[in-house]
Structures are given as structure tokens and as C-alpha cells.
Amino acid sequence: MYKYDEYDQAMVDARVEEFRDQTRRRIEGHLSEDQFKPLRLKNGLYLQLHAYMLRVAVPYGTLNSRQMRKLAHIARKYDRGYGHFTTRQNIQYNWIKLADAPDILAELATVEMHAIQTSGESIRNLSADHYAGAAPDEICDPRPWAELIRQATTFHPEFSYLPRKFKIAVIAAQEDRAALRWHDCALRIIKNENGEQGFEVYAGGGMGRTPIIAFPIRAFCPAGQIFSYIQAILRVWNRHARRDNIHKQRMKILVHELGEEEFRRQVEMEFEHILTLGRDFPQAEYDRIAAHFDPPPFETGLSEELDRSDPDFALWVDRQVAAHKAPGYAIVNISLKPDGGITGDISAEQMELVADLAERYSFDDLRSTHVQNLVLPHVRKRDLHAVWQALDAAGLASVNLGLVTDIIACPGLDYCSLANARSIPVAQQIAERFADLDRQLDLGELKIKISGCINACGHHHAAHIGILGVDRKGTENYQLLLGGSGAEDVSQAKITGPGFDETGIVDAVERTIERYREIREPGERFLDCYRRVGMDPFKEAIYG
Amino acid sequence: MGDPLRFRDDPAPDEPGVSLDAFLNQKDATSVLLEAGDDVRALLPELGRVRLVEIDFPRFRDGRGFSSASILREAGYTGEIRAIGDVLIDLVFFMRRCGFDSFEPDAPFHPGAVDAALSRYPDVYQSATDGRVPIWALRHPQFATE
Predict the structure, then answer these.
(1) DSSP of A208-270, one letter per residue?
(2) CB proximity under 8 Å: A 98-127 to B
(3) CATH code, B13
(4) In-domain check, residue B32
């Protein structure tokens, strides 16, 4: 993985000192909360219902064991012994004191981590395919480009006070594991007919109260020009977005208002101009960064054999382990959705255990996923049993990847000051209702995603079965949505009809799923079934 | 409000900026005030007579002025660009990089704060109109000569 040099370290250290100064000015009363807010948000610090929440960047979802141990230490020393992995591959701490925040950032800086641009109206921390460097279907590791773009967009002078947040995702595979087209700027690395590497670019995606799937703005941008292209997109948006209504300032709204053709035309004009400025990083710098992502020294001649005599182990392997590009290796998915647990939450002890496993069995490489799980990307098949045993002992061996209990959920009204309704208890009740593994396996791939408000951090628009919590006359009410996808078959979920109370929504989910069981064709996923039959059979089951 | 904070050696233009429309209609005007929503590119054909461009920040979170200043410098404008309005000290570093070379904030900066803000970051990750050598070029000395 990428290793900071003295320049990267100096930048992060300077950021810590800057934030220490800003925090001091706030505490001493020289900055009003109104003035301090955008400054702390640029460092991932939110003021939530009960305390400050700190969102730490995990650039493109890649961590090493030293970093994970530091995250555990922070959880223990400054929080309540746990952290929460988010739908953008970052980690959040829920119980932070303002006065501690500069010290936490200083601790993070010692392991090459930060909270820069994890919130606020800025170019956010990039997300990427969590199987990068391990997936058999990728044409290259997308992380060198992600790191290059990270540097290019860090403290960008022109784009540090944007109309709203701006999210970038990068993948290099056919399968979309990063919810690509739900981003403002979605990049897929491809090769053109001449074998040259470049980017397929999508723009204007986003969830929130106006969900829009990013449109293909450019079929091929030469790899070495991608920073210019991103700047062109940003400049058109920065100059022309509305600034009078925070709900209408995301780029997707401008794209919608101008139309895709006109937006593309303006971006292309700006691109032509920006290219003349020579702002793109040279090949030599790409090569320097890419060298950090050279494949680890995979052993050769390893056996593909696996002792499956332990049925529980075999069950786990079949669900949680994915194919690796190197013979004899496998990708291990660690579920952060245990029975009765809280989606994405992980204790300090569990973090340390996972760090140990990464160090011992996965070339010190560890990933976070937008589905709020973790990944050990490079595990020898012959080590799988040992890894499973260790995970099992730590309560991390749940079998549910992509199944009905692998639920995405935002923190909701239990933590978040924006939420209208709780997400966590709804996720827990659904998980309890479907706890039987045979039932889950029978239902197959089924993605439930829950947001506690219209901002859609829980990705309900991209869910096979989505749940949106709203406030209805002072009580929590839940709407049901069907048919969304955040994968390569991307689509936007549609609302079924009137909402439900907390118990009612769990019943409605079950009725939806039971109807699917009745009408599915052999081997047909819920999503495909929905697409075949439409909303009506499900509405009938839900509302009678 | 006092004198603007300037990073230029030439005498400060004393003509107050007129609106973009007025400037385009008054062929002898030399100072112009751009509102955040003005199209700075309308000014480009007239750059030869411009001595001062004031760019207004109605709220400090409104970052349109960063693009306006950048576009002026990219077009070769070498006159003064002044940030006015709700300009906080925390913006000055980015503003300098985008080509602003004078500041007239609604609330004056604390003495000493400007130097601290401008010297906070030892280097920069990307090139901008200020000509600073970006980190990638420092890493590859063959590119580091500007």
C-alpha cells in the first residue's frame, strides 16, 4: 500500500496544527460556531445529538495492521471502545470531545491517517473497489489512480469551498463493488481499442432527497489527463451551481437543470482549456505511486485444496470467501453484521484481532467496504481454517455476505442530528426475523438498506429492498422501496406506497420477501424477480 | 475599514470598482467589481484596461470567486485581484493560490494571523496560478524548474 514520504507527512502534520489552532480559537471564543462549523467539517468533525462525531478517512478503503491498531487505540482512549465503519469505507467515532479532536488527529498522523475532507462542502475521501489488487476481474489495481487523485484533490485551492460535497469512486473491474454510479464523479478504468488505459467517466450521481444515477459523460478519458477532466467538471459545477438552497446545490441538480448534453459541452470546453495549463501529474509520478501497490510476493505452487470436513467452516467459506486472482489465494469477507449487533460497529478488541490476522495472513493488507464489512484481501487457502477459527472466536464469523441480514444501515436517530427515525433497531429486528441461515440461503442475494432520513446515508435508493425513516407528525414512520441496485446493474428503488410504524415495516419486509418466494423462478434473485413482475404483486402482498 | 492588505508593490488603484455591466459599457473604467454570480469570462476581452478586479464573497462559504480569480490569471491578467466581503483568514491561503493579491475583508484580520495562515503548509499538492512548485515536481527534480 501507499507509504507517505516526507512531503505527505508534512502536509498531514501541518493540518493537525492548523486544526489545533482553529479548535483553540473556538474554545476561547474567537470563532463563532457558525464560523467554526465549516472548518471542523473539513476535518470530519460533526456535532451530533449527544457528542461530536469524528469521521476518519480510510482512503479507497485500504488499511494496514498498524493503522487498524491505532483506530482501536483511539476507540479505547477517546471513545467508548468501538468504532463504526460507514458506507463510504470510512470509520466514525461517536463520542468525541471537542478538546480531544486535535490530539486524535495527531495520533492518526503518526500512522499516516487523517480526517481531511471527510465531510463539509469539499472533495471527499475517495472510495474504490474493496477487492482492488485481488479481484480476478480487474484490468489493473485502481488504487494508484485513487491515490494520485487523492493527492491532486487534497487542499485544492479552487475547489475547497464547493457548493456541496463531491464524491469520487474508482474501480477497474466489470463487477461494480463500489456503488460507482451513485457518486458525483464515477471513474472506471478501461482499455480502449488501441490498448491504452483510460477512464470511462460518469457524472452527476448521488442519493439524498433527489436520487440520480450518474450519466456517462465521457466514454474515454486518457489516463494521464484525468485530473484535468475532474477539474473541468468541478469548475463548471463550482461556477454555475445554485448557492441559494442547500438542497439544490449538489452537482446532480445542475446536470439535471442544464441537461446532460449541455453539461457535457461545458465540461469539454473547460477541459480543453485546463489541459493547456499542464496541471496533470506526469507519468513518473504515477509510476512512483503505482510502485507502492505492486502485488505482494504471492507464493506459487500452492494447493487449491481445502479441507471442508467441518460443516460450519464449509458454510462460511461458501459465503464469505471470494475468488482471488492468484492461485492458492482467496479473499476473505469479514461480516460486521453479527446476530443482534449494530451494522458496521466493531470493538477495539475486534479491530486488534483483525489487524493481527491481516498482518499474519494477508500481507498486512486490510479493506473496508461500502457495505460496512471488512476484507482480508490476500489469504492463502490453506490458512482459511485458521482465519475462520480466529474470527469465530471474536464473533466475526457471521455467514451472511449479500444475504438478507447483510443490511446497510446509517446510524439514524440513535446518533445523528439529521435523522428523523432510528435505523439500527429496524435493522436488528429484520435480522432477528430472518436469523435462520437456511432461510437466508434459500432467499439468496437480497440487499436491504436502511436510512434514517432523506439524506440517504443508508443507501436505500440503491437497495433491492430499501427502507426510509421519516418523521410523520412527530412519530417515526418507515417507507418501503423496492428494486434499487448499487451494482453494475444499477437502478433506483421505487416507493411501494404508504409507510409503516416500526413493527409494521418489519412485517412489510417479510410479506415482500414471502411474495418473492411464491413467485420466483428457479434461481431467480429477488431483484430480477422484481424487474420481471414489477411492483404490483408486491403491493398486493404488502397492502392486501 | 482601512487600507486593503496588499501583496503588490505598485500603488493601489484608487478608482472604485463598478459593476460588470457598467464596466463593459464604460470604456474608460479601469476597476470592476465582480459579484459571485457574474460570468468572469465576459471580462476577458477587456482585460487590457483593467487595473483592479474586486471579487465579492457574499458568504465565506460561497466559493465561486476562487474560480473567477483563477480564470483571470489563466487568461494572463496581471493586475490586482482583491477579495472583498465575508473573507475569513482561513480562506487566504487558498485565495493567494488562486491569484488574489489583495484583501479587504468585512472583519479585519488579526495582526500576524495572515503570515501564520500563509506559512502553515510547507508545500502544495497541485499547481495553481501562483506558480508554486507542487510536491509531485519536488519528488522528480527534472520537473521542478518553473
Answers:
(1) TTS-BPPEEEEEEEEGGGHHHHHHHHHHHHHHHS--S-GGG-SHHHHHHHH-HHHHHHHHHHH
(2) 121
(3) 3.20.20.70
(4) yes
